[in-house]
Structures are given as C-alpha cells and as structure tokens.
Amino acid sequence: MSINKYTPIHRVLTTYPQLIHRLVKRDSRYVSLINPVSTCTLGHCTTIESIAFTVGDDMETLLTYLKGEMEREDIQFKY
C-alpha cells in the first residue's frame, strides 16, 4: 500500500489496525484515533497531513513513521 500526505487516515488504519496503538504509544496526542466512531466517520475525509497538523506533529515525520511501520508489518507477515 502506497501512502502520501493526502491518504485518508481511515484507509491506513483499516488496512493496518495495529498502527492505532503504536501511534498512541509514540505520542499520546493520537488517543482520539482509538475511538472507532471518530475513526470511521471523520477518518474518511481526514488525511495524514491534517491529522499531523491537528495533533501538532510534523507531517513528514509521521509519514516516515507510518511507512516504516507498514513495511515492518508487511515483512513480518511475508515470512
């Protein structure tokens, strides 16, 4: 799965649901992503760029982190 700053966060989190808890562990400001109602309703239009802005995180850092975690999961399940 390829992601960029315009990718909806819902698409990432439905493909890799374990990322929710990793994001919260990385920074507690992502705790709102644990709520399935907000993730399902707002997540369809909320992009990675806007969620990074909302919590005050650097977008490039968040994007790099997400790509690394997704790659790690893909490798883990591949072997």
UniProtKB/TrEMBL annotation:
It comes from the Bacteria. Gene3D superfamilies: SP0561-like. InterPro entries: DUF1858, ScdA-like_N_sf. Residues 3-63 form the DUF1858 domain. This is DUF1858 domain-containing protein. It comes from Parabacteroides gordonii MS-1 = DSM 23371. The lineage of its organism: Bacteria, Pseudomonadati, Bacteroidota, Bacteroidia, Bacteroidales.
